[in-house]
Specification:
Layout lengths: L4 E5 L3 H11 L5 E5 L7 H7 L3 E4 L8 H6 L2 E5 L5 E4 L2 H7 L4 E8 L9 E8 L4 H22 L11 E3 L16 H10 L9 E4 L2 E10 L4 E9 L2
């Protein structure tokens, strides 16, 4: 039997809760890492984990870690379509209503490694709802990966790479083709850690959250601050 020690590296609070509620009780020894400083070659050498899982990890993983352990990341796109940054926001901006979550072995080239498994996921709802849904989907995938240990297979098809969105792209567009398209812009940014949709009026910044699409209009909470 292979080593049943696993590391889960994630910096986001919703994944911390999922780890405690759904992963820490699985068979084996489970270790949670929440900061880049904790992820060291010394730790890998001491634990010799079967897998190091990276659900929503924002840092580049050093080559020495990739070489020392089987590292698995989870990308919210049907790779090779949608490699790159901000996959959920880029997919919604392109009109997608659902996606595929891909578990893939990490290599030096971003999102280019072989694929262990894929799972469908809806993109409906506000950004925070989507990311909570993603955390649950990834937890199921981690459970199955630990239990089944599937062999990853190379990606197949044409690569389409998304560019990571910038904070400026959260600005409300001057014109939107439809009210539904404007709602998509608002909802996809309503999540912890992302620049919310905003509009500048003079020296004031209006940031929008909790949007709701109504018949003929959008309701939303607005936070007003002075720009520095």
């Amino acid at each position: 039997m292979s080593n049943q020690t696993y590391i889960v590296a994630t910096a986001h609070s919703w994944n911390h809760r999922v780890f405690e509620d759904r992963l820490a009780t699985l068979p084996g020894i489970w270790r949670l890492i929440t900061t880049r400083e904790e992820l060291t070659l010394e730790l890998i050498d001491s634990l010799r984990p079967r897998y190091v899982f990276f659900p929503h990890w924002s840092h580049r993983v050093p080559r020495e870690i990739l070489d020392a352990a089987e590292c698995v990341c989870f990308h919210a796109a049907d790779v090779p379509y949608g490699r790159g940054g901000s996959p959920i926001q880029n997919l919604i901006a392109r009109g997608h209503r659902d996606t595929v979550v891909t578990a893939l072995r990490m290599v030096e080239e971003l999102d280019a490694g072989p694929v262990y498994m894929k799972r469908p996921m809806s993109l409906e709802g506000l950004g925070e709802e989507i990311f909570l849904r993603l955390a649950g989907t990834v937890a199921d995938m981690i459970r199955d990966l630990a239990a089944e240990e599937p062999a990853p297979v190379p990606q197949d098809g044409e690569s389409v790479v998304f560019r990571r969105r910038t904070p400026e792209e959260s600005r409300l567009p001057a014109e939107a083709p439809t009210l539904a398209a404007l709602f998509d812009h608002l909802r996809m940014l309503d999540v912890e850690g992302y620049p919310r949709a905003f509009l500048d009026v003079g020296d004031l910044r209006l940031e929008f959250s909790r949007p709701a699409l109504r018949a003929g209009h959008i309701d939303a909470d607005v936070r007003i601050t002075r720009r520095r």
